[in-house]
Amino acid sequence: MFRATALAALALCAPLMALAAAADAPAQPSKPPRSSADILATAPAAVWRDVDPDNLLVMTLPQGQVLIELAPRFAPAHVANIRALARGGYYDGLAIVRVQDNFVTQWGDPNADDEDTGMKGKGKPFPEGAKPHLPAEFSIPLKGVPMTVLPDVDGWAPRVGQVDGFAAAADPKTGKAWLAHCYGSVGAGRGNAVDSSTGAELYAVIGQAPRGLDLNITVVGRVLKGMEFLSSLPRGGAAMGFYDKPEQRLGIERVALAAALPAEQRPALQVLRTDTPTWQELLDARRRRGGWFVHSPGYTDLCSAAVPVRVKPAAGPEVKLNEPRSPESRR
């Protein structure tokens, strides 16, 4: 009887003894994640997609080129109008009219009608094929949208992730999906009427992500390259960053659709695909930062999870990488 009882006691104590032994054993260090630079440098060619030249705007400023990828999935009418405006040379000779600190850089026709003041200007006429009136395109049906969902919690939407490389959000209850206002996002300026945007006046977010604008303005794309030329401009005046004097405005030399340029002049860019293990590893590296970082947050948010862009390699392993980052993600 004693022997059986003793064996039963030992059997009950065995798991506790095993746990104690495990606690006393030296901890095995977890394998640190590779750095973002290492992940991108070794990413196979198959995880990159070419940017469609029919969706690429090339805006030439005195300082350099700004390359903008359009988002026809989310704003088909606006994108079609922007293409028509670009093909017709509408943007050529216009200007950057507003630079508001930590918010946006905006460009368009300085002589266009101003509904705030009621003044009628002498706006540049639209070229053939461009429409003077478009429907608002704040969201699209969620069904069928190929979103790579982020597991991290977002305060602005119940579901967020990437769609075609763009930061996007969604609400399954309403069945809607939309593009988010992150650093580098490009939207179509509008007046008080929700359907008053045409794509003739555009802006790029140059500051902290103004997510409160989501579902209130049509987002038409994002800047892939050249953000430094938009974010480093002199700030405008007290009236929401609009320049007080005409001489303060920066002239736009040209805005062209890449597809309309000769082949040798077309920028060849690639965007990392987000439906790949490479993207998931990159996100994990951003969540579990090492090296210089003393504290690793174990978290990333939608606007910090910007999808990398690179110049398409012509040949050989040497590739110049450009990983867009929001101001919050910078050291």
UniProtKB/TrEMBL annotation:
Domain PPIase cyclophilin-type: start-end pairs: 62-257
Top-rank taxon, per record: Bacteria
Signal peptide segment: 1-20
Enzyme Commission designation: 5.2.1.8
PROSITE patterns for the chain: CSA_PPIASE_2
Name of the top EC class for this enzyme: isomerase
A Pfam family: Pro_isomerase
Single GO molecular function: peptidyl-prolyl cis-trans isomerase activity
Keywords of this entry: Isomerase, Rotamase, Signal
Protein name: peptidylprolyl isomerase
Source organism of this protein record: Roseateles chitinivorans
